[in-house]
Recover the amino acids of this structure.
């Protein structure tokens, strides 16, 4: 099915955890088939006690490291990707906003295998993206090996 | 400005829209997902799930950074609790409560919440202003400068028509007024202005003079007498 | 003592009965008539149906001459509002209110209200027993 998709722009939200590598690899694979561009974004969540445009040096530095690592990973697969940092109250709506504004036709995102109260929980961000994304979404979940928690 | 609105009902929703359109940062605190979805659908990610009288929720909302805090739920005791927290604990400079029961106005004021919007009274006065039978209509309170804005209509049976302002009690009761007469531009009233039936006066009156003015003007005008 | 109690749940009703048995003049204000079923049959005080956050109703309940007002509904905000009216509008000498939320209990104490969180009371009680 993915072969039939007309893809020009792939958006990859990265979070700095262990699924980033696999998500970048998948995104590059999809993109290569149709020569699409790939953009990896990281959302810096700003708590409401601070203005949205507050300068968060430490968080920004961490975020820059995460996206540049994504860029390096993509290069290993022979792909040059763009990166972006977003500052928002919540990651989910920010990813959707970015997908709409940037006219992405595919979002590739990953989720760790974590349980909350004994039940698998994909988290607010993933469920928001699945619910609200206007484009294709590919979701990667890491294997549920023991000790694989992020 | 950072504006926090507690309650995403009709008032909260339209208020949030006004502030957002004005380029302000807005947050609506609302426990009901249906209300939040309506607001987010139009205005984006500007809601927080929670109750505006809970300290954890107010901390998360960053209330200590807010410039304006409006409690606009349908329950007065919830609005009072939220406003008292905002004003006394978080020191928000401007705190306003929506009043659902007009009788609570004095209580709120005594308990430190001076700025209230009495929804029922606003609707009532707004309706009255559009019905000619009411010769005395309270339009607006400017509490901070002790002024009331009142619309007075001159009727045939009042002691105002066909007289100069100096000959009527208005000259003593009203601080300043603007005359609105069909067919001519509004003009500032002075002692020599002659009043006629059908004139409307937009009057600035100090709070302690409003009752006297009401008596002079004569409240509701009956159909015949 | 002349005591007005707001609320007709179990705690309010037990308190009303205890005070009544000791010969105090007790008035219970409840928003639902059915709530008065919690009162013991022996209760000889007065019951009033109505909203105790309403100044007019509190007047009717005799708050002007009350020595104490105790707000014990399930709603923290209603309790806090009624207690503040009793204290600041009617000048009742002894005013107490139940505030479940421990954080808000602290806040209302800073406003000079005698607020009691049953959660904190019970937690401290159990902790005290553990330490015995």
């Amino acid at each position: 099915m993915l072969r039939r998709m007309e893809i020009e722009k792939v958006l990859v939200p990265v979070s700095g955890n262990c699924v980033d590598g696999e998500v970048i690899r998948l995104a590059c694979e999809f993109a290569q088939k149709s020569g699409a561009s790939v953009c990896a974004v990281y959302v810096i969540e700003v708590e409401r006690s601070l203005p949205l445009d507050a300068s968060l040096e430490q968080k920004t530095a961490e975020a820059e490291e995460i996206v540049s690592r994504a860029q390096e990973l993509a290069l290993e697969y022979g792909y040059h990707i763009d990166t972006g940092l977003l500052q928002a109250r919540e990651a989910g709506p920010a990813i959707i906003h970015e997908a709409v504004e940037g006219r992405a036709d595919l979002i590739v995102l990953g989720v760790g295998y974590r349980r909350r109260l004994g039940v698998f929980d994909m988290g607010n961000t993933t469920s928001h993206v699945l619910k609200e994304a206007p484009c294709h979404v590919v979701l990667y979940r890491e294997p549920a090996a023991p000790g694989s928690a992020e | 400005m950072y504006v926090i609105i507690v309650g995403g009902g009709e008032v909260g929703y339209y208020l949030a829209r006004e502030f957002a359109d004005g380029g302000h940062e807005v947050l609506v605190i609302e426990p009901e997902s249906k209300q939040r979805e309506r607001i987010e659908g139009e205005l984006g990610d500007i809601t927080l799930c929670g109750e505006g009288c809970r300290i954890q929720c107010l901390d998360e909302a960053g209330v200590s950074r807010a410039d304006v805090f409006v409690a606009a739920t349908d329950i007065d005791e919830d609005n009072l609790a939220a406003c008292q927290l905002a004003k006394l604990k978080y020191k928000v400079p401007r705190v306003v409560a929506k009043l659902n029961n007009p009788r609570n106005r004095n209580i709120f004021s005594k308990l430190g919440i001076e700025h209230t919007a009495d929804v029922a009274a606003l609707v009532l006065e707004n309706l009255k202003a559009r019905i000619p039978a009411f010769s005395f209509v309270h339009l607006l309170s400017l509490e901070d400068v002790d002024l009331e804005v009142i619309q007075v209509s001159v009727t045939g049976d009042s002691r105002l028509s066909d007289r100069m302002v100096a000959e009527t009690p208005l000259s003593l009761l009203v601080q300043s007024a603007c005359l609105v007469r069909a067919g001519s531009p509004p003009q500032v009233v002075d002692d020599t202005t002659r009043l006629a039936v059908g004139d409307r006066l937009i009057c600035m009156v100090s709070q302690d003079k409003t009752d006297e003015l009401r008596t002079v003007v004569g409240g509701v005008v009956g159909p015949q007498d | 003592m002349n005591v007005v109690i707001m609320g007709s749940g179990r705690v309010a009703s037990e308190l009303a009965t205890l005070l009544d048995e000791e010969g105090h003049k007790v008035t219970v204000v409840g928003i639902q008539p059915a709530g008065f079923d919690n009162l013991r049959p022996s209760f000889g005080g007065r019951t009033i149906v109505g909203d105790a956050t309403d100044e007019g109703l509190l007047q009717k309940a005799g708050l002007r001459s009350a020595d104490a007002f105790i707000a014990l509904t399930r709603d923290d905000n209603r309790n806090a509002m009624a207690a503040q009216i009793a204290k600041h509008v009617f000048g009742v000498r002894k005013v107490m209110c139940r505030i479940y939320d421990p954080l808000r209990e602290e806040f209302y104490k800073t406003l000079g209200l005698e607020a009691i969180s049953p959660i904190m009371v019970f937690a401290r009680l159990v902790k005290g027993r553990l330490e015995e």
Q: What stands out?
A: The interface with chain B takes residues 47-52, 88-90, 93-94, 97 of chain A (CB under 8 Å). Helices of chain A lie at 20-34, 57-76, 91-101, 123-132. The longest strand of chain A covers residues 37-45. Chain A has four helices and seven strands.
